[in-house]
Amino acid sequence: MKYLPQSIAGLAFLGLFQGCEKKADLSSPNVVLIFMDDMGYGDLTCFGAPSGYRTPNIDRLAAGGLRFTQFYSAQAVSTASRAGLMTGCYPNRIGLVGAINHTAKHGINQNEMTMAELLKQKGYATGMVGKWHLGHHKQFLPLQNGFDDFLGLPYSNDMWPVRYEGYGYDPESAPVRPGDNPPLPLIDCNDTIRYLKTLTDQDQLTTLYTERAISFIKKNQKAPFFLYFAHSMVHTPLAVSKKFQGKSKQGRFGDVMMEVDWSVGEIMKTLDDLRLTSNTLVIFTSDNGPWLNFGAHAGNAGGLREGKGVSFEGGQKVPCIMRWPAVIPAGTVTGQLASTIDIFPTLASITGTSMPVHIIDGVDISPILRGDFECAPRVNFYYYYNSNSLEGVRIGTWKLVLPHTYRSYVGVLPRDDGKPGPYAKDSCGELLFDLRRDPGEQYDVKEMYPDILLKLHKLADEARLDLGDDLTGAPGANRRPPGKLVGTN
User: Fold this and answer.
1) Greater confidence, 16 or 177?
2) What is the phi/psi pair of residue 269, to 5°?
3) C-beta atoms surrounding 173 within 10 Å
4) pLDDT at site 18
5) Which of 85, 266, 393, 417 counts the highest number of beta carbons within 10 A?
6) Of 431, 432, 435, which Cα lies nearest the Cα of 335?
């Protein structure tokens, strides 16, 4: 598909240049949100991935749209990150932190408005494939939270009976021990249709998700639709179908990236074939940075400090691409600060739907999508981790790291056989970084910029009043509880 010059890319009559595409209703674009798992800032070729595999379909997506170079997940871990994405809130505001598993008796609160519920106000068909991770009991699953259709896993693909230290890639030989996870359920709508017991079972996930996603698009092509495609990959254990096994020069990780790229290409081809491309907003991003202690089975943080589970840049800075040919100028790049929590209010602004009455933390970044690269809708950002620990605050390009202890990948060797290497444990005092000149967070400049330090301390104090801080004991005034399993206290 050919893309038009920037000067006319935003015109509503773009469809006239693309065969039989109908005139675009720019207030009701289709939305495809593709959310990767544990994919780092350096894992796409259009973001500088090393040789050994390529991501041509994702690169084409970027060439036809907008790349964000300062884009952040809500938090550097799975449940929290997805909670922020779906609600537009810092995850600790709504009580969803960490990565919950089969023992959890909580999940997303029914009083929170999800992105699916937001768009259903305007008659959108809503479907999801992939990893949910906002509660595995029925009341917390997608169909009870705004989605019309769902096929996927309730949590991460490593939350199954196989323990990392005992299996590598031979799950069936690992003994099941007391306290192990139950079998991994594949859920269709609200019902478990089978259990994934081996890595061979998991090898089919990306294909199954892609086929269901395409089916959803075809079924709902005549009405606006929202498809949330949350890949289980590239979270370990890495699973890849036979059609991509051994295809890359970067081992199993490269094979998986090639299959994910294939999946994106299949979605794009479907939109092209159905003549839906011009008025479909495709968003591609990741839930957090790479799980670095898995070595060759992990992604690449692109030279940023640390990775998943850490509030330094490698844990939360992720690639993001948005393409909407009827509106977004093709082949553009922005360095404005943005986050996954901003997608919710942006979609509300685009579609004219009503926001929830409670506080959300996201901001409308639609002016950036329309080509205003000088505007700065998001001025600051909070870096939280653990249950409610404020570990950093940011204004513009300035980031204040607050004293805290954290797990680290520095000074310990990863593993390359599908098993994790150890974590180190580290701590830091107060640090000030200018991310414009020091994206790797190596040079503490707090002594040079006392005025900047003062502003950031004020921002940290505001965050503690609002959301609290376990590190200082501040309770916060505006936090909301997660949903509790019916019948529990």
Assistant:
1) 177
2) -65, -40
3) 9
4) 44
5) 85
6) 435
Q: How far apart are CA 107 and CA 100, in angstroms?
A: 8
One-character DSSP codes across 187-222: EETTEEEEEE-SHHHHTTHHHHHHHHHHHHHHHTTT
Give the burial class of 486: count Cβ atoms within 10 A of its Cβ; 0-12 exposed, 13-18 middle, 19 or more buried: exposed
Domains located in the chain, CATH noted: 28-375 (3.40.720.10), 383-483 (3.30.1120.10)
Assign residue 336 a region: left if phi > 0, alpha if psi is -120 to 50, beta otherwise?
Answer: beta
Contact between 302 and 376 (Cβ < 8 Å): no
Query: Rounded distance, CA 460 to CA 382, Å?
Result: 8
- pLDDT for residue 22 is more than 90: no
Is the model's pLDDT at 228 over the cut of 90? yes
pLDDT for the residue 487: 83
Instruction: Give per-residue pLDDT as tens, 28-67.
Output: 999 999 999 999 999 999 999 989 999 999 999 999 999 9
Tokens 């675009």 correspond to what residue?
A: 24
Q: Give residue 176's pLDDT.
A: 59
Hey, what are 213's tokens?
């996603």
Task: Give the C-alpha separation, 180 to 174, whole Å.
Answer: 11
DSSP state of 145: T
The identity of residue 166, as a single letter, is G
Beta strands in 255-388 (DSSP E): 280-286, 320-323, 332-334, 338-339, 380-385
Residue 132 contacts residue 141 (beta carbons within 8 Å): yes
pLDDT of res. 162: 78
**Alpha helices (H) along 280-327:** 313-316
DSSP designation for 335: -
- Asked if pLDDT for residue 197 goes beyond 90, the answer is no
Q: Tell me the pTM.
A: 0.94
Where does residue 403 fall: left (phi above 0), alpha (psi -120 to 50 degrees), or beta otherwise?
beta
CA pseudo-torsion sign 446, 451, 452, 453? positive
Average pLDDT value for residue range 270-274: 98
